[in-house]
Fold this protein.
Amino acid sequence: MAVISIYDTSALYNQNMSDRQQQRLMEFYEEAFHGYDVDSIHDCSIGAGGTTLPLARLGYRVSGSDVSDNLLAKARDNFAGAGYDIDLFSADFTRLGEALKDTYDCLMSTGNSLPHVDEEGVSDFVRGAAARLNPGGLLYVDMRNWDRLLLEKPIFTARDPLVMTAEEHRSLYQIWNWNGDSSVEFVFVTSTDRNGRHEKTSFTYAPTYYPLRFKDYEAILHRHGFAVRRCFDIDHLWTLAPDVREKCGEFAADFANIGWYAVLAQRLN
Ligand SMILES: C[S@@+](CC[C@H](N)C(=O)[O-])C[C@H]1O[C@@H](n2cnc3c(N)ncnc32)[C@H](O)[C@@H]1O
């Protein structure tokens, strides 16, 4: 049995890197940032970069940081492979005030990364962002709908098989290990059968998540001088989102049925 941390593996190397996802993200960002005067964008949890690369393709001056050297190295490859040589460095997003030397028109944290820290960490992130944004700068964060997950507290999700051939069947399951304080660890279980016989089971762990409710995030933004400008249902961008439900197209009314959303906030002074 092998036990591995997901950010030390290649599991996220190609996240959102397919042509289809790149195109979808470009269309989404084009609409999300429409009407704002943005040139420089820094993603503070860039991972392997697939969620952020579409912004470079749209012509923004993109840079990125992360705490995972493994994923930063892959981000360098992914951007270089698309013809972009961008500034990428190691930094903890709870210490942006010290870690970032420049100021930016937009700071972002993509891919449900912010809930890797507790509410105090989120507050540190927003405070640091306020210090490193140009006046009127934007703060963009996307995340799973933790309000909904806290109501449902799922414990087991069967995902699409990774391989399904006559010889090999590789299944993927996600186990949600909820702690007493409502923090949660995801364990991804891969089970491989070859020629009808079980071959191996491996366990890949995601670091702890601290569920972040929309109202709590909004209150933290207000405390640090930000106003929420727009919220987006982005279930169409993140196929990992839970089952898609009927919606009317209005964020507040749909909220309970949204699996993954983004918040665009603006620094007020
Ligand atoms: C789910 S991945 C998302 C990566 C990327 N944004 C994407 O959409 O593919 C979460 C990322 O958050 C990073 N991360 C976690 N805690 C962090 C912190 N305190 N500061 C900076 N990055 C962090 C991880 O290393 C990982 O790359």
